[in-house]
From TrEMBL:
It holds the Pfam family PDZ. It comes from the Bacteria. Residues 620-665 have a biased composition (Basic and acidic residues). Keywords: Hydrolase, Protease, Serine protease, Signal. This is Carboxyl-terminal protease. Coiled coil: none annotated. Belongs to the peptidase S41A family. Residues 620-676 are annotated as: Disordered. GO terms for molecular function: endopeptidase activity; serine-type peptidase activity. GO terms for biological process: proteolysis; signal transduction. The keyword Protease applies. Residues 1-19 form the signal peptide.
Amino acid sequence: MRRILIALALVSLIAVAQAKPAADAGSPVLKPTPTQAEAAVWSARFLTRFHYTPVPLDKAMSEKIFDNYLESLDGEKLFFTEADINRFGASRDKLDEAIYNKDLAAPFAIYNIYLQRVGERVAYARSLLAKGFDFSAQESYRFDRAKAPWPKDDAEIEDQWRQRIKNDWLRLKLTGKSDKEIRETLDKRYANYLDRVHQINSEDVFQTFMNAYATAIEPHTNYLGPRASENFDIAMKLSVEGIGAVLQRDNEYTAIREIVPGGPAAISGKIQVGDRILGVGQGANSALQDVIGWRLDDVVDKIRGPRDTVVRLEVLPADAGQDGKSFTIELVRKKVTTEAQAAKKSVIEVKDGEATRRIGVISLPTFYQDFEARRRGDRDYKSATRDVERLLGELKQERVDGVVVDLRNNGGGSLSEATDLTGLFIERGPVVQVRNAAGRVDVENSTSRTMAWDGPLAVVVNRVSASASEIFAAAIQDYGRGIIIGEPTFGKGTVQNLVDLDDVAQSESTSLGELKMTIAQFFRINGGSTQLRGVSPDISFPITIGAEEFGESSYNNALPWTSIPAARYQPLADLSAIVPQLITRHEQRTAQSRDWKNFREDLADARKLREEKTVSLNEAVRRKERDEQEAKRKARQAETDKVAAAEDSKDRKEKSDLQAKRGADADTAVEGAEGAVALQDDGLQADERSIREDVRREQARKDKPDFILIEAAHILADEIALVRADTKLASRVLPYSATFRVN
């Protein structure tokens, strides 16, 4: 059995089928396999006995599974009618028996009806395209139907679909597209839905059903089918054996979204972003298998393979038409590291009077670790802590004055990595307390001999920072080791273990998948919990999204907050005396910043939009709204251009390293940066846009100054300046550790 403790909040484990593609009435009837029935029973045995909060699989649980299952299939009430729900009701309290009796006919029957309904609704939608719509009528479309009742009959649901398609049409119409172009775009969109739903398989259905069961117990317990399990492992170890390319669907094609530097595809120099893969062959001079129209994950499986083996690809260049000339290339698979999710460093220079503070930044997207390589004793196993330690050494060589650890959007990862990473900043001592289902509390300690960085420290978090991120931020805060900056975090305080069902069942010939099962709860060293409440920053930035919308509090079956006795630990510093001054300086600085002014305005607009559940289908109303947004965008851009022109005469050496590289000031409103007005809605879906253009825009957004991070650097620079200038304040702020360095 795999005994790997993980602290993940936001790993996507939802089946492909839940993307809600469409099907026609001729969709194949999907049936469960004996292997899936076996996996369901073994999952139930473990979940009812070894979960942190075990719940019997009985009639009451069956009803919760039933509700979760329907929510996962049709949460927006777009496909099923009241009559369908009544029809399904016979199995509402019998899903426990279905699992224990290894008879999954009922959930599969529901899914088959779902596929049938999707096909019927999309067929109706396509039939509307020939007629067009009247956009002069005063009509609105309710796009948020999560809390709406089930439609009573086909007439009601068809009217909802009429409004939905009318809205799709209007979005494209407002971009200037002709009726002919709109009709072709939408018809192709819905036809692609039909193609994709025909590719849904039994594994997709089973994973959807089993996750309805797992999440009915607790939000962070999941079932991973064989394919999902493999992808989870890849995400944790940041490596895969393949050609080094990120793929995405492009209508009926599989296209190149990104080329990983140093991988076989990049080294060949022949494959470009936007190229489409027509065929795949295994081995030198092998026959090519046509993969046009295949599921994306099926194509990925064909291209991945053992290192040092050959894969052949037939490629249609991005700028070639469908009948253009393709070429064939042979690539030798290698181990490719997905560096996009690895730790990175940068330096921001902050002007402080006549002085310049150099602030190092460590950006960490996830707490990754190659578990298998570590178990094998591989000295060079991939590890977030190892990478950060190396980067801190490099920042020391670059003589930075302070370090900011950026954990924004970091959803968690390995619990041991969170513990070890904390040790880079505190030396030895407790980091987190873990309580298992029996009530036993173990203290996870850092065993680091020396601090990798003993200077001024700040940690930036937001609502998406979860689990392992919260462990690290909480420990840094409890020790007084650094300033926590940003938003309240996600609020996940549970620990998961990966259970390989093949090991449990001693299965050799089949793959039963894995359970990601909650087995413990973690607590801060001060005895508090991050569960529900998260980590509250010392210096708060505007809240981008409320806890009731996103976070642990948004789950109706999340574990409650509780506390335990504190661990024995010695704070390294007491920063409370300096925080009020830092807040004052932060507020004064951001009050003068256009970026922050725009940011707050946009957050207010976004909150207002989130409160709305309907949108007008009147062209004049929508065009007025669009024109107002465009006018606001142009006004901001004009202001940006004015500032940029004025700054051309300034000495660029006074700019931060990051700002100088990107040619913009921290106070410049930048399109694509946080707080900037979004580009106009083009009415298209991701696979309808040019991949090359989409990638270019994405890169442009990444290249813009990050004013949130720049402000965090200013705050840390303020701390350094205040402590250096006031020995009395320094004695109050740093009374506990003579070795704690403030340059």
